[in-house]
Amino acid sequence: MTPSVTLRTPDKAPTAVPQQHKKAELTLVSRSTQIKERALSLLFFLCAIVAVLGVVLIFAFVAVRAVPLFKQIGFLNFIAGTKWSVANSQFGVVPFIVGSVVVTAGALAIGAPLAILTALFLSEIAGPRARAVIRPAVELLAGIPSVVYGFFGVTVVAPLVGRMFGGAGFGPLTAWIVLSIMIVPTISMLSEDALDSIPMGIREASFAMGATQWQTIYKVVLPAAKIGIIDATILGMGRAIGETMAVLMIVGNAPQMFAGLTKPIATLTSQIVLGMSYATPGAFQTALFGMAALLFIISMGLVLTVRILSRGKRGTYDA
Amino acid sequence: MRDLFAEDRERLKELGPDAMDKAVRNQRRQARRFRERFANNAALMVLSIAAGITVMALAIIILYVLINGAPAIASHFPSFIFTWPHGVNAAGGIWPTIVSTIYVTALAMLIATPIAVLAAVYLAEYAKQGRIVTIIRFAADSLASVPSIVMGLFGLAFFIEAFHIPMSMLSAALALSLLMLPIIMRATEEAIRAVPRYIRWGSYGMGATKWQTVRRVVLPWAMPRIITGLVLAMGRAIGETAVVFYTMGMAINMPVTPLDSGRSMAVHLYMLAVDGINLKSAYGTALILMVVILLLNTLAHAIQRRYRKVR
Amino acid sequence: MPRAQLKRRVLLASLLCMLLLASLILSACSKDTTDVVVSGSTTVEPIAEVAGEDYGKAHPNVSILVSGLGSSAGIEAVGVTKTADIGTSSRELKGSELKLGLKVIPIAHDGIAVVVNPANTVRNLSMSDLRAIFAGKITNWKEVGGPDEPITLVNRDESSGTRDAFTSFVMGDTPFEINAVVLPGTGQVREVIRRTKGAIGYISEGFVKGDVRALSINGITPSAANISSEKYPLSRSLYFLTRADPSPEAQDYINYVLSDAIQEGAVRDAGYLPIKIKSGDK
């Protein structure tokens, strides 16, 4: 269409290289090929945008469903209300937030050290043979469906906890045990990535100074991989907060404030599933969507935190 | 009284004035070295124990599923796999749930793979680093960490209530593909970035266009790692419960068209487990689910190992 | 570029598409069957569904479509909107529903047993004590003549039909104590009661086995006879409802549900009692 066509040479004679213009390099192919290339790169871009679109749509469609509730009972009564009673139209989610926090914090306290130590073992100590066993094991732990973990929790861990501490065995303690195993692979695999990305030279320098293996790990490797490990822990935290089916099966689902390690509680996720199974469209269902929106915001916040932390890291170590 | 240390003092005098200091320092150094070695060994032990606990946790869960599940399957083999559940408590086999699981996973792969791979191609080959790429990466990370229950409710609100797709293989596959998208995207992008630059130069040097280079050189080279990512994403989809629960329904059905409903293995296991009446079938289902995941993981490893050898 | 390979791929893809299309059309065409729509109580749903499946196998030209919406919705669907051929209900008709001219067909009895750990020495509870226990007013077994043992409450989730029935029989307007463990399945409730010393919960009588003990309420044991005569205070019947002239297919299906195959099969599997009690029952 444009006069500049003269610069483009047809497919059959690619040898006719125009000389005057630098841009000509790009136009060695026929016009149709060029259009195809453009169209393809646009297509790829559109595919990449799907992820963005997905996130926006998820938030929009979940949050919009919650809006009527905020109009009806007010946002503050939702987010800061301590009473959940469907019969009385009280939809305070504080008990569930507390439940989620308690369950997540405990799972992290047990799972994170275990995972980080496992990652250190894999990256710093293990020989090839030990690594060949442990690493696939960790990956497999990540692959086990959460409903299998829940099933294990309800048939093995809960009875055990019940026998040791009295009561029915459902509650934060049971959830801690099961969830901590579930988040080990997330934290461990990401921590190992962080540890592996530290240049070998740093370790060699430390050993050359006469440091022991532990001193090298503790004083050199860990500080260097600190941010990567914190990132891993935060993502593990996201996994724990968002975990649904396994948690539902083992926390006991009592919509009360945290009352003790072996007393039943409910989390945001577990309450959504239990509620959805009988909620009809109305205030109750919108409250559940509100809780989902809250979960979404929390998980986005965690990802954002990781992003910000990692940006600092790039400045320091990539030089 | 005899001086017990006379001899030592004599020797000290021979060795010179610093000897006492040196001896003390030597001893201290030795003590410190001992302490260090002890701390080192203790710490290394703690690390090995942690790794041991992790492996043990896996072993316990696998053994638990195997010990309880094997009799359930073995006593009705192969009817447990190939017959329908019947009655109020879903006694008998689980065949339709296996078919539903395979159906929905395959469909989700068909939807997610092209989009995810092309998106990764864009990020790795075409995009200029800038704000848009940052946003896309952030979105992919966020998508990967959206809790599955939130994804499930979204699927319900979007595909089923807004677009009026019935609870079916299709709507579940669409929701699942959103879940798989970031996993495949990341694996593909890493795979593409690992392709050595000189290979691309060779292709460009022969006059190939960008797309030709990507399609004929970069993607084939990166394929083993991409497939590994695909296999792992598949495992994720097969084990997913919450998303499938709200988008596919839970009626036991043999799906034929993508608009048929069904119940996946994971949902079946969930329903049996919370009901707690027919635990035998629950254990059997759990075992089959675990075997599938195990096989997929092994497959991913095998592909990766082969790829390493080739390189 | 290997054109042959490309061609083969295109061929394969189009073949797949055609297969998909064909299956869609096929599934759309095979609809020359009579539908019998059954909707209502979620408590009746499993029985109606299993009976529907079995009936459909024997009569390929009839398909039974079952949905669970709740008893009131079921009565409305068959009596008012006439969107269902058969309504199902876990309660008797009341008020204006009586004037709809519906035929009421009892299909099963359901008794809800209050169960405790076998080690518990309590054998009987009055209705008011039971209510006080589940409302959290009574928290120790010694207050009702048992051992000095704290009570562990086990409740069902709110979507459960058993919880619905328990609420209407026992609780009325009294709210449940919220520190109860909420379990989403009958089998789980039984299992937790079996292994927890001070636990109390409720399940359909048909699921009571030797490892948990069913209490008598107001001195009446939840025996088959007491439940079918509704002497036991936590008992009810499950009903099918039809308009005055049900279609022959619907009537045939109802007859099937009342036959031994379903009464002794699905009805018992679901934890309910057959409508006709045999002399051999306890």
Spans of at least 5 consecutive residues with low confidence of chain C:
none
Distance between the termini of chain C: 81 Å
Sheet with the most strands, sense and barrel status of chain C: 10 strands, mixed
End-to-end Cα distance of chain B, whole Å, is: 82 Å
Radius of gyration of chain B: 30 Å
CATH homologous superfamily classification of the largest domain in chain B: MetI-like
Shape of chain C from CA axes? globular
Instruction: Report the radius of gyration of chain C as a whole number of Å.
Output: 24 Å
Order of helices and strands of chain B: HHHEEHHHHHHHHH
Number of strands of chain B: 2
Question: If classified by CATH, what would the architecture of the largest domain in chain B be?
Answer: Orthogonal Bundle
CATH fold assignment of the largest domain in chain B = MetI-like fold
List low-confidence stretches of chain B: none
Task: Please indicate the percent range of residues of chain C in DSSP E strands (runs of 2 or more).
Answer: 15-25%
Overall pLDDT of chain C, averaged? 87
How many discrete domains of chain B?
2
Helix/strand-derived category of chain C reads alpha/beta
Helix fraction bin of chain B: over 70%
**How many beta strands in the DSSP annotation of chain C?**
12
Secondary structure tally, helices of chain B: 12
Report what the structure shows:
- The complex is a heterotrimer of chains A (319), B (311) and C (282).
- Chain A has one domain (84-311): MetI-like fold (Orthogonal Bundle), CATH 1.10.3720.10.
- Chain A is built from eleven helices and two strands; from the N terminus they run H-H-E-E-H-H-H-H-H-H-H-H-H.
- Chain A has helices at 31-73, 75-79, 94-125, 128-143, 146-165, 172-196, 200-208, 213-242, 245-250, 268-276, 283-317, and strands spanning 84-85, 90-91.
- Chain B is mainly α.
- Chain B is 79% helix and 1% strand.
- The mean pLDDT of chain B is 91.
- The interface between A and B is large, with 91 and 82 residues.
Brief summary of the model shown:
The complex is a heterotrimer of chains A (about 325), B (about 300) and C (about 280). Chain B is mostly helical and about 300 residues long. Chain B is about 80% helix and about 0% strand.
List the topology elements.
The complex is a heterotrimer of chains A (319), B (311) and C (282).
Chain A: H1 31-73, H2 75-79, E1 84-85, E2 90-91, H3 94-125, H4 128-143, H5 146-165, H6 172-196, H7 200-208, H8 213-242, H9 245-250, H10 268-276, H11 283-317
Antiparallel strand pairs in A: 1-2
Helix pairs in contact in A: 1-11, 3-6, 3-8, 4-6, 5-6, 6-8, 7-8, 8-11, 10-11
Chain B: H1 6-15, H2 19-74, H3 79-82, E1 85-86, E2 91-92, H4 95-126, H5 131-145, H6 148-162, H7 169-193, H8 197-205, H9 210-239, H10 242-247, H11 265-275, H12 279-310
Antiparallel strand pairs in B: 1-2
Chain C: H1 3-29, E1 34-40, H2 45-58, E2 62-68, H3 71-79, E3 86-89, E4 103-116, E5 124-125, H4 127-134, E6 152-156, H5 161-171, E7 181-183, H6 186-195, E8 199-204, E9 213-214, E10 216-217, H7 224-228, E11 235-242, H8 248-258, H9 260-263, H10 266-269, E12 273-274
Parallel strand pairs in C: 1-2, 1-3, 5-10, 6-7, 6-8
Antiparallel strand pairs in C: 3-11, 4-8, 4-9, 4-11, 4-12
